[in-house]
Fold this protein.
Amino acid sequence: QLQLDESGGDSVQAGESLRLSCFISRITPGGHTMGWSRQVPGNGREDVACLGADGIITYADSVKGRFTISKDNAKNILYLQMNSLKLEDTAMYYCAASSTKSCIYNYWGQGTQVTVSS
């Protein structure tokens, strides 16, 4: 069973930066496709960044140029660096992993709240 533990959520002002971290309990030899999704109550979940097991990275248009996904393989930590935060970035952010090579996830963390205010 893969466990994902997020941290780093906080309340910040618009324009500021924040870095989310996700500790991954174990890494399989082939690695996992991993990513970050977010959800606002009443809305569907939005996939914001995906790091494929093959190293290919994709971003949602809403965060391109502002968010960066990365992974420290030595520490088993997935990061999401979020710069130039906007009010609309306010959401619960979830770390996710896939047992396939796609960005369709079947493992989820418990979430960490990011609140951006003006």
About this structure: The chain has no helices and eleven strands.
